[in-house]
Write a structure and sequence with these properties.
This protein is α+β, with helices and mostly antiparallel strands. 14% of the residues lie in helices and 34% in strands. Strands 3, 7, 10, 11, 12, 15, 16 and 17 form an eight-stranded mixed beta sheet that branches. A six-stranded mixed beta sheet has the order 20-21-19-18-29-28, with helices on one face. It is globular and about 75 Å long.
Length: 619
């Protein structure tokens, strides 16, 4: 009897061991027990624009096994987690390019009370929150009850809005769904699971990720002023006004406050139907009265919903599929013209239609830059694409708008859209008091906030001195009062938010060609892209003189993609004329290395911007 019991015990131990062991590549087995990864928090400011450069300096908190999915290419990779005083931020690689708010079965599980016996049991945790990205809803567990939640219950925002194989996610950790704290503890556990054919899990089975919130104070968020930038040539507003709501008498005061606070020079409206250009012009005039010897001009594309309203004369208009191109005379301001395109592209899952519309739009620009078309632009005419582009599908559509890569052959060859043979620039403005970039917000929709409204332009000849998305619910009371705004103004007016930019026409445009040749012969950096150092070359001529010693005042300023000044080179002590050069080693004012990404360098001569160029740092 004793021998039988010992044999049974031995077999049981061996069975348990074998069930927990795996073969290494060299054929030897190792014991794979429950692994817990207790991860310290990372306090950080994350810019939720879907470009990820601000994650470069943060640690990877978990790397999921590559190729461990059962089927398909959806395969979790790196997970990074960070937080600030309000938001939890997640960075997740998923292997497959898809739209995170559609057509997937990815779920996020959060054990926020650190009790594996509450909520949904999955991979060793008890999840109190389950969020199904593809269904745009989830479950919140309180005691033994579960409640359906939508994006507004937990303040979830994902980026980018277009398809990607990497996403960043923000969740408002101060949320109180149904009166309960979303995060009652100072830490939580997390699981990602693909319920589709691949069945991938992050972390791997038998492993646990626990994250501790880091409450280290962070520098305050820099507010973006609604004030017009001092060096601005014109201010542009693009605004989808939701099915004629700007003409609703009950919303007149709301729109009046919004337009008065912004005070634009050029407006691109979308979703105005059946009103004449004269009626739209009169409405804007009533809200933004013209001064002496001024007036508003308005033009529309018939059978469509796009209107251009301008303090400058509108010379011509051209119909494009779901877009309008308007040639605006800026001669009173800058002695040049502006090609202003207002677009309202097909919405939702109409990816084929939207790509066709974008290809046709870009083909129009290509032909306008060449002789013999319906419109022949003067060389270096600024070009600005604006509007509700509805980019909620394939990332290729945004790629086409930026790079000129045309997909459908009936619209001719691809081309480099900017005048210097480079890409257009995607402005990506943020909200004035929040590090968010979404331009569409609706609590009544299952879709969480997204970036649908754009300004894409020829940055060889245009520079944005200041830009912002106006989101009044997140603005402080004193700022609202200073501009005569109410907290709910933009959400009462429309589900789209006003997108604004102050533009400066650079001296590289044809209108400034003579003066720039007198002052700056060229501005270029080499190598570009670069890894360690790059040299910025430029030439200053005698006609640029300003100082008492007969030499110009010259500064070189370097900015990151978010418009933050990184480094200034004050060239006053050595202001000689002729060819000059500055070597930049990729460090900031404190000689600390900056991260990989796109940087802008701005040459300022006698306190005037003369050139702005792009360079790419690769770490």
């Amino acid at each position: 009897m004793k021998k039988t019991y010992i044999s049974f015990l031995f077999v049981t131990i061996i069975t348990i061991f074998l069930s927990r062991s795996y073969l290494c590549q060299d054929g030897q087995s190792f014991l794979f027990s429950n692994k817990k990864s207790n991860l310290r928090g990372q306090s950080a400011r994350i810019w939720l624009e879907g470009k990820f450069t601000d994650w470069d300096s943060l640690s990877t908190l978990y790397s999921d096994t590559i190729g461990d999915q059962i089927y398909g290419v959806l395969d979790f990779g790196e997970l990074k987690i960070a937080n600030d005083e309000r938001f939890l931020f997640l960075y997740i690689e998923i292997g497959e390019e898809l739209n995170i708010q559609n057509d997937n079965q990815i779920s996020l599980f959060l054990d926020t009370d650190n009790n594996e016996n509450t909520g949904i049991q999955i991979n060793g945790i008890g999840a109190d929150v389950k969020w199904d990205f593809g269904d745009r809803q989830g479950l919140f567990f309180i005691s033994s009850n579960s409640y359906t939640i939508y994006h507004e219950h937990i303040g979830i925002v994902t980026a980018p809005t277009v398809s990607s194989n990497i996403f960043e996610i923000a969740i408002d950790r101060t949320s109180t769904p149904f009166g309960y704290n979303l995060f009652p503890e100072s830490s939580f556990k997390i699981v990602f699971h693909d319920a589709g054919p691949g069945q991938d899990m992050l972390p791997n089975s038998e492993e646990t990720i626990s994250y501790d919130f880091d409450e280290t104070p962070l520098p305050p968020i820099t507010k973006i002023s609604l004030q017009r930038a001092p060096d601005t040539d014109f201010r542009v507003l693009t605004y989808n006004v939701l099915n004629n709501s700007i003409f609703e008498p009950s919303l007149y005061d709301t729109y009046d406050r919004i337009l008065s606070a912004i005070n634009p020079d050029i407006i691109g409206f979308q979703e105005i139907y059946y009103y004449t250009a004269q009626e739209v012009q009169a409405l804007v005039e009533s809200m933004l009265p013209s001064g002496p010897e001024e007036q508003w001009y308005c033009s529309l594309i018939y059978n469509d919903d796009v209107y251009a309203v301008s303090r400058f004369p509108i010379l011509e208009s051209y119909e494009i599929n779901r877009s309008g191109a308007f040639l605006i005379d800026l001669s009173s301001q800058d002695n040049c013209q502006l090609l202003f395109i207002v677009a309202h592209l097909s919405s939702g899952n109409q990816n084929i239609e939207r790509q066709l519309e974008i290809d046709e739009l870009m083909a129009f620009i290509r032909e306008a830059k060449e002789p013999g078309g319906v419109l022949e632009l003067v060389e270096n005419t600024p070009i600005l694409i604006s509007g509700d582009l509805n980019l909620v599908g394939y990332a290729q559509q945004l790629e086409t708008l930026i790079t000129g890569e045309i997909v459908n052959p009936q619209f001719g060859p691809s081309f480099s859209p900017d005048w210097d043979g480079s890409d257009f620039w995607d402005l990506t403005p943020r909200q004035t008091e929040l590090l968010m970039y979404y331009t569409w917000f609706s609590e009544s929709s299952s879709y969480s906030p997204g970036r649908l409204d754009f300004m894409i332009y020829s940055d060889y000849v245009l520079y944005s001195e200041n830009s912002f998305v106006l989101f009044t619910p997140e603005m402080e009371a004193d700022t609202l009062a200073a501009y005569g705004l109410f907290p709910d103004d933009v959400t009462n007016a429309s589900d789209h938010l006003p997108v604004v930019s102050d533009f400066k026409i650079l001296d590289t445009s044809s209108a400034m060609e003579n003066s720039i040749q007198d002052n700056i012969n060229y501005v270029i950096n080499y190598p570009n892209p670069f890894k360690l150092t790059t040299t910025i070359y430029f030439s200053v001529t005698q006609s640029a003189v300003s100082g008492s010693d007969g030499f110009p005042f010259v500064n070189l300023e370097i900015y990151n993609i978010k418009g933050q000044k990184v480094r200034t080179f004050d060239l006053f002590p050595n202001r000689g004329l002729g060819t000059r050069e500055v070597i930049w080693n990729g460090t900031d004012e404190n000689n600390q290395p900056v991260g990989s990404g796109i940087y802008l360098y701005k040459l300022v001569v006698n306190n005037k911007t003369k050139a702005i160029k792009k360079m790419i740092l690769l770490r």
